[in-house]
Specification:
The protein has 346 residues and is mostly helical. It has 18 helices and no strands.
Length: 346
């Protein structure tokens, strides 16, 4: 099958143009009809489109290309299908309540989604490109290939199962103050994020094998290793931009200020790793310095009532007749500074 040379021999330009066109098409529908149901579908399926096109253009269908392409397609399809199912149940996406009617604000989200799709697709895009496929490849089954397949399986199961666990918990739990600490959520507060991160690193691990074993040389060698930007971009996105920062402190603040089972929620934060799965019995007594470093629970995620809740606690304590902050009941999320009775309950 003939190789297709499209704009550049790493397929970066053609995949960028396809992504822009694909996202703008769905953006036009979403903005015109104020329709939220296609937003996440457009993101997930865009990965599938890019993988199919670059694999077809490559003219070479080595097992490694097929596996890496199938992995990102499987991940994109599952993610988009789940998010579509969820939005069909909820009816609308609260993320866009303040931007849905503002053209440039709403467009900003879609531009960011373009960058997410294009950059995270780098490992598969470059692996399928003519500058890489011109070289021979090691037979599929190298140590990196095997490790990549195992990591993908772990990440895919963790992300898929945790999405279902969280959805079922919300649907069937009648107590609105209950804390989702079932299944994977008893070992990590964000198992779906952890699964998604290791999925992308697993695909990179498979894609970089031809360079790692010396089959690919020159600029293509550097290009394959440079595609680690894809999983790193996703990791930064989840840890510092749209993932944990929007859920950790804001979620704890909302719980605290509403009085919605804050004590139970604080105990869960104290016992449960923020991202890396770890037994809660070992995480709870762990020194704060280890939580802040090895387990990535940075201060930016921590909710401290004294700093972040204003006068809400004092007002609530007065109304409920509870002792004030000076009498030792202050609780801080995620750093082990909880009341003595909470530590005993742990």
């Amino acid at each position: 099958m003939a190789v297709v040379h499209a704009l550049d021999d790493y397929y970066l330009a053609i995949t960028l143009l396809i992504t822009i066109a694909y996202q703008l098409f769905f953006f036009s529908i979403a903005f015109t009809f104020k329709f939220d149901k296609l937003t996440d579908l457009a993101g997930g399926t865009n990965f599938v489109v890019l993988a199919i096109i670059t694999l077809a253009f490559s003219g070479h269908h080595h097992a490694r290309q097929i596996v890496a392409s199938l992995f990102i397609m499987l991940w994109g399809l599952r993610l988009s299908a789940f998010l579509l199912f969820r939005i069909l149940k909820t009816g609308k996406d609260d993320r866009f309540d303040g931007t849905r009617d503002h053209f440039f604000k709403f467009l900003g989200f879609w531009v960011f989604q373009m960058a997410w799709v294009w950059v995270v697709s780098f490992p598969v895009t470059v692996l399928n490109s003519p500058n890489v496929t011109q070289y021979d490849q090691p037979d599929f089954g190298t140590g990196r290939d095997i490790a990549g397949v195992i990591l993908f399986a772990i990440g895919f199961v963790m992300e898929s199962v945790s999405d279902i666990q969280k959805y079922r918990f919300k649907i069937y739990q009648s107590d609105k103050g209950a804390v989702c600490n079932v299944g994977f959520f008893s070992w990590t507060r964000h198992p779906n994020y952890f699964g998604e991160i290791i999925i992308q690193f697993s695909i990179f691990m498979i894609a970089v094998s031809p360079a790692a074993y010396g089959y690919v040389q020159g600029q293509a060698f550097s290009a394959l290793y440079a595609t680690i930007l894809g999983p790193f971009f996703l990791t930064v996105l989840l840890m510092f931009l749209s993932g944990l920062p929007l859920q950790e402190r804001p979620g704890a603040k909302k719980r605290y200020e509403s009085g919605n089972n804050w004590d139970g929620y604080a105990r869960w934060l104290h016992r449960t790793s923020i991202l890396i799965p770890f037994p809660p019995q070992l995480y709870a007594p762990m020194p704060t310095i280890l939580k802040r470093t090895i387990f990535l629970e940075f201060p930016m995620y921590v909710f401290d009532p004294a700093k972040h809740a204003g006068d809400v606690k004092g007002q609530r304590d007065a109304e409920e007749g509870r002792p004030g902050e000076g009498q030792g009941d202050r609780q801080q999320s995620g750093d082990g500074l909880v009341a003595s009775e909470d530590r005993a309950a742990s």
